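Bench notes, bay 3.
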Amino acid sequence: MILQTGMRTDIPAFYTPWFLNRLDAGFVLVRSPYAPQNVTRYSLSPEVVDLIGFCTKNPRPMLAHLDRLRPYAGQHWSVTLTPYGRKIEPHVPPKDQVIADIRALSAALGPEAVAWRYDPILLDGTYTVERHLAEFSRMAAALEGAVEVCVISFLDLYRKVQRNFPEARAVPKPQRILLGREMARIAKAHGMAIKACGEGDELAPCGVDCTGCMTLATYEHALHAKLTPPPGTVHPSRKECACYLGGDIGAYDSCGHLCRYCYANSSPEAVRRSLRLHDPRSPFLLGGPRPGDVVREAKQQSWLDGQLCF
């Protein structure tokens, strides 16, 4: 199956020692964010985990430990690189460092296993359409040959985003179309395809792939193998999305980047509380067992069918 680590937090950036300890232990416990007494136990055995997916803004802490992931059939990394400064992304590493780390991941795993995420796209007095296109062009040139895909999306005004970033505004449709068309053109010039995340089919006429950014086809390409999931197990993560994200072992309110547009953090103080609960030796990312916990074993089996996929 597919094990996802990063739709709720950034494990490579902040929790690499914990993750390596879980690999040693062979399992992880995940508390439901909606019913906290419900706990899922995921096996981390390479016999049942075909691919581990990482979403991160800082892969560097994990780079020295990639050999620990060799027993798994594959990995897929989505690395976010945007033009925003400290006022919007307070604790994200310098852009040149992230570019160097994306290139290092690509050299180790192959460009098919690494995607660049340029999202979310937001507009204000500093980050205009012209600024985005200039920065995107510079980054695409720096990443040429290292990635095959760049994923874009526009700012979603979730309630958490509205609370932490009250001046943020949705990007109007004319600007979305202009950015999608020009980014697709720039990406193609650097040997990349643009995929849209959760944007429907609006950008398809602009040359943007709107079929999803973390689909089974994405994982098969990273694995160089065919996946055959049991009937009924593959479904979109949300109604706007065509992606399959698998079992997520992260936790909300635990990402220390504190990006103001983040949908996964309710507030900086909530993150600070979570960080105080983290124990690298615990089977849980945050805290430990609680009275009344109900632990269930995740249903896991390998989906690899042995057929090569190119």
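Next record in the batch:
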Amino acid sequence: MRWLCISDIQGDANALAAVLAAAERRGYARLLVAGDLCFPGDQPLEVWRRLMQAQATMVQGVGDKAVATIDPGKIRGRDEHERQRLERLAVARAELGELILARLSRLAPSVRMPLPDGGELMLVHGSPLDPTEPFTHDMSDDEIRALLGDDPADVVVCGGSHVPFDRTVMGVRVINVGSVGEALSGAQPTSARHADATFLEFRGADLLVEQFVVPLGAAA
């Protein structure tokens, strides 16, 4: 059995479609999404529709909470960047509509699910201690341990920092699945853009983790 795990789509429906197409060639039984679904990219509604079609298990990210709860008309941007961000927020809210915004606001910050081997997986945008505070690839074991909290589950699947990694700390396997919408190459030319994704494959008591890259743009 294979699960596809992704995060930080950020309204990029084309990147999401590329990842799903690549994953479908291998096949998977379940889609897990670690938050930041629809903002700030320019295709929020299409992203939501694709995730609904895929019956994805999703949690709320920082961007999801922002687009669902912030009224940009009540905020004045301090500089041009903030003003553009608020304009984008208003457009995303209008495109998604009140029903979807309400569903985004009700997404849980974390979801626990049983694993085939009897263990437990936690899906969260950031970390078990604080869903808004992500694990990063350059953290020490002590820093990761501090963010695990008191009851983190056996496997933590997360996003938020846009850099994929797979580490085991204090007996907990922390799998950051990177970013679909803003992967490491976000500052590089369009031809070099890529999206990150992760397969979890269960073979008896063994959990196999395969992190892979999907080329985007002219390189795809």
